[in-house]
C-alpha cells in the first residue's frame, strides 16, 4: 500500500546526486562530539600508546628471531636490548601495558560514541515532533524512522571501531616507515613505489563506494516504509486480498538492496584483490632484496627480520586502510541524512518544560480574510478570503461537501500550517503573538479516526493532562460514558489498548479520546467528524459524551451528519473555501434553494 509519489536520490544514470554541502553537513556532526572532546582526547592518547606498543613489537621480535646462538648462553640482563633475555623481559612488561591501553581506549571511545548517538537521537526526535505538519505531508514515516535507526547504527560502528582502527593503522604505518627507513632507505624506497598507487586507488574507490552505499541506504529506507504501510493498513490489505501485490513490492525493494550491496561487495572485492596483489608482490621483492643485502653486509640479520616483520605489518595495515576508509565514507552519507533531518525548520516550541494547564482564553475566535493552500499542493486554493467570528462558549458547526475547507479550518486553528494571507485572532490577539504550544494547550482535538498510544487506558486518558490524579482520570472517563466498558475489562484502567488502540472498538476509542479532552478542560474544543464512522448505538453514547464535553466552552464541530449539529448556535455552510450560508438550523432550512436545505432534505427525507 505504498501510495504517494516515489522519491529517489538516483539520477538517470543510476548515480547519486550529491549536493555541494554534503561534506559541510557531515562536518556539522562534530558539534555533537564536541561536548565529549576531552574524553575523546584521552581515548586518543590511549590509542597512541596502544598503537606505539603494537608498532614496537616487530623491533623486539626481530631481535629474538635474529639472535645469534651465543646470546642464549649469556646471563639474564633485565630490560636490556643487547641479549635475548632482556628483550623477553621487555615484552613481558609491554604486553600487559598493551592490554591496559587497549581496554581504556575502547572504554573511552565507546563512552563518547554512545553519548554522541544518544544526543543525536534525542535531537532528531525533538526536531521531528517540533516539525510543522507540512513536513509530514511530504515525508514517509518509514523512511524517516529508518534514517534515525539505521544511520545512527552506521555512525555508531564508525565512531567506536572504524575511526579508531583507521587511526591506529595510520599510526602504525607512520612509525613503521620511519623505523625501516632508518634500517635501510633503499628498501623503503622500493616499498614506497607501490604506496602512491594504492593511495590514489583507495581515494577513488572511497568516493565510488560511498555513492553505491547511499543508494543501498535509500533502498533500505523505502523497504522499511513498505513494511510500515502494509502493517498499518493490514485490514485493507487483507480485505482487498492484496498480499501478492505488497509482497511483490517488498520483494522488488529487497532485491534492489541485495543488488546494490552485491555491487558494493564486487567492487570492494576487486579493489582488495588488486591491492593485496600489489602488496604481496612488493613484499616478496623486498624480501629478496633484503636477503641480498644481508649477504653483502648491508644490514644485520636482526635488522633484516625487523624489516620483514615491519613490512608484513605495514602490508596488513595499508591493505586494511581502503576498507576502513570506505566504511568512513559510507558513514558520511548516513551522517549527512541525519544532519539534514536535524537542521530542518521547526516550530518555535519550548520543550524544556511541560505546558501549564491553566486556562487563559475565553474562547473568542476571529478568522479574518483567510487565504490558504497546502504547501504540498500550492496550485489548489483551499480557503478564499474566509471570514468567521465565533463568540466565547458558542457551538459552531462546519458543514459542506468534501474539499470545501472544513478540516483545513480545524488545522489552522491548531496552528498546524502557516496562512498564505489573513489572520486568526484568539481573544482579540493575533495567533502569531502566542507561543504555539501555549495556544494549543487551550484546545482539545477529537478527530474522526482516533489513534491511541500503545499503553494502558489510564495512560491514554492522562495524555490530555499528564499531571492529573487517578481520580480525575476516573471522573473524565465517567463523563465520557467510558467508565462502564472500562470496568468490564479484567484490568480496568490498566488494560493495554494495543498498537494504535486496536484492542478497542471504534466507539470505545472515541470515548477514550473524549475522556482525554474532558480531562484537559480546554477553552476551545475542535471535533472533526467525531461520530461519522460509528454505528448507531456507539454514536448515541459518543454524542451524549460530546454534549457533556461541549457545555460551557467554545466548540467547533465538523460534521457530515446534520442530526448531530441541529442544536448548534451557528451552522456554517462551506463551499469552495468560502462561507456559502450561515445561521441556525431553523434559519438555514428556510432558505429557498439553499445548500443546507438541500443537504438536510437528502439526509432527513
What is the share of helical residues?
55-70%
CATH class of the domain at 22-342: Mainly Alpha
**Total E-strand runs:** 10
Radius of gyration: 35 Å
Terminal-residue CA separation? 38 Å
Structural summary, described in words:
A six-stranded mixed β-sheet has the order 6-7-8-3-9-10, with helices on both faces. A four-stranded antiparallel β-sheet has the order 2-1-4-5, with helices on one face. The chain is built from 20 helices and ten strands. The two termini are 38 Å apart. It has a domain at 22-342: ABC transporter transmembrane region fold, CATH 1.20.1560. The longest helix is centred in the middle third of the chain and has 54 residues, at 243-296. By secondary structure, it is of the alpha/beta class. The model is unreliable at 1-19 (pLDDT under 50). Helix 3 (37-65) runs antiparallel to helix 4 (84-130) and helix 6 (141-183) runs antiparallel to helix 8 (195-232). Strand 7 (524-528), helix 18 (536-550) and strand 8 (554-558) form a beta-alpha-beta unit.
Amino acid at each position: 500500500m505504498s501510495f504517494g509519489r516515489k522519491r529517489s536520490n538516483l539520477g538517470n544514470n543510476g548515480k547519486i546526486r550529491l549536493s555541494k554541502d554534503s561534506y559541510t553537513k557531515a562536518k556539522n556532526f562534530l558539534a555533537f562530539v564536541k561536548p565529549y572532546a576531552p574524553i575523546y582526547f584521552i581515548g586518543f592518547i590511549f590509542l597512541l600508546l596502544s598503537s606505539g606498543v603494537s608498532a614496537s613489537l616487530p623491533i623486539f621480535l626481530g631481535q629474538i628471531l635474529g639472535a645469534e646462538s651465543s646470546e642464549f648462553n649469556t646471563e639474564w640482563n633485565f630490560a636490556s636490548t643487547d641479549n635475548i633475555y632482556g628483550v623477553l623481559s621487555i615484552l613481558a612488561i609491554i604486553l600487559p601495558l598493551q592490554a591496559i591501553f587497549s581496554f581504556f581506549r575502547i572504554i573511552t571511545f565507546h563512552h563518547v560514541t554512545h553519548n554522541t548517538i544518544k544526543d543525536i537521537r534525542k535531537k532528531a526526535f525533538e526536531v521531528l515532533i517540533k516539525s510543522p505538519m507540512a513536513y509530514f505531508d511530504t515525508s514517509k514515516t518509514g523512511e524517516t524512522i529508518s534514517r534515525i535507526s539505521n544511520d545512527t547504527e552506521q555512525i555508531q560502528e564508525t565512531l567506536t571501531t572504524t575511526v579508531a582502527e583507521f587511526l591506529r593503522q595510520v599510526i602504525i604505518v607512520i612509525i613503521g616507515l620511519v623505523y625501516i627507513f632508518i634500517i635501510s632507505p633503499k628498501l623503503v624506497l622500493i616499498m614506497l613505489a607501490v604506496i602512491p598507487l594504492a593511495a590514489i586507488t583507495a581515494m577513488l574507490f572511497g568516493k565510488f563506494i560511498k555513492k553505491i552505499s547511499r543508494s543501498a541506504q535509500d533502498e533500505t529506507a523505502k523497504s522499511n516504509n513498505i513494511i510500515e504501510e502494509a502493517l498499518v493498513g493490514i485490514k485493507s490489505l487483507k480485505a482487498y486480498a492484496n498480499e501478492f501485490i505488497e509482497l511483490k513490492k517488498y520483494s522488488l525493494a529487497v532485491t534492489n538492496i541485495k543488488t546494490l550491496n552485491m555491487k558494493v561487495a564486487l567492487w570492494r572485492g576487486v579493489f582488495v584483490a588488486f591491492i593485496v596483489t600489489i602488496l604481496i608482490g612488493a613484499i616478496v621483492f623486498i624480501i629478496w632484496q633484503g636477503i641480498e643485502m644481508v649477504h653483502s653486509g648491508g644490514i644485520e640479520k636482526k635488522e633484516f627480520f625487523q624489516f620483514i616483520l615491519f613490512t608484513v605489518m605495514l602490508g596488513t595495515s595499508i591493505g586494511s586502510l581502503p576498507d576502513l576508509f570506505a566504511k568512513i565514507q559510507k558513514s558520511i552519507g548516513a551522517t549527512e541524512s541525519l544532519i539534514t533531518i536535524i537542521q530542518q525548520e521547526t516550530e518555535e516550541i519550548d520543550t524544556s518544560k511541560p505546558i501549564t494547564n491553566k486556562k487563559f482564553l475565553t474562547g473568542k475566535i476571529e478568522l479574518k480574510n483567510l487565504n490558504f493552500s497546502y504547501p504540498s499542493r500550492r496550485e489548489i486554493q483551499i480557503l478564499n478570503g474566509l471570514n468567521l467570528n465565533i463568540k466565547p462558549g458558542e457551538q459552531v458547526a462546519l458543514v459542506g461537501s468534501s474539499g470545501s475547507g472544513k478540516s483545513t479550518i480545524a488545522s489552522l486553528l491548531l496552528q498546524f500550517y502557516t496562512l498564505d494571507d489573513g489572520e486568526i485572532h484568539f481573544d482579540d490577539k493575533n495567533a502569531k503573538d502566542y507561543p504555539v504550544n501555549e495556544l494549543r494547550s487551550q484546545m482539545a482535538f477529537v478527530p474522526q479516526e482516533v489513534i491511541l498510544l500503545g499503553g494502558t487506558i489510564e495512560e491514554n486518558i492522562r495524555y490530555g493532562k499528564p499531571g492529573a490524579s487517578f481520580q480525575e482520570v476516573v471522573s473524565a472517563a465517567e463523563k465520557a460514558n467510558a467508565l462502564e466498558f472500562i470496568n468490564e475489562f479484567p484490568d480496568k484502567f490498566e488494560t493495554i489498548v494495543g498498537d494504535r488502540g486496536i484492542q478497542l472498538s471504534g466507539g470505545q476509542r472515541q470515548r477514550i479520546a473524549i475522556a482525554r479532552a474532558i480531562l484537559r478542560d480546554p477553552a476551545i474544543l475542535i471535533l472533526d467528524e467525531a461520530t461519522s464512522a460509528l454505528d448507531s448505538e456507539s454514536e448515541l453514547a459518543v454524542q451524549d459524551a460530546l454534549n457533556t464535553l461541549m457545555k460551557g466552552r467554545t466548540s467547533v464541530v465538523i460534521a457530515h451528519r446534520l442530526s448531530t449539529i441541529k442544536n448548534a448556535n451557528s451552522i456554517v455552510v462551506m463551499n469552495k473555501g468560502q462561507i456559502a450560508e450561515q445561521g441556525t438550523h431553523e434559519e438555514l432550512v428556510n432558505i429557498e434553494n439553499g445548500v443546507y436545505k438541500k443537504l438536510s432534505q437528502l439526509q432527513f427525507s
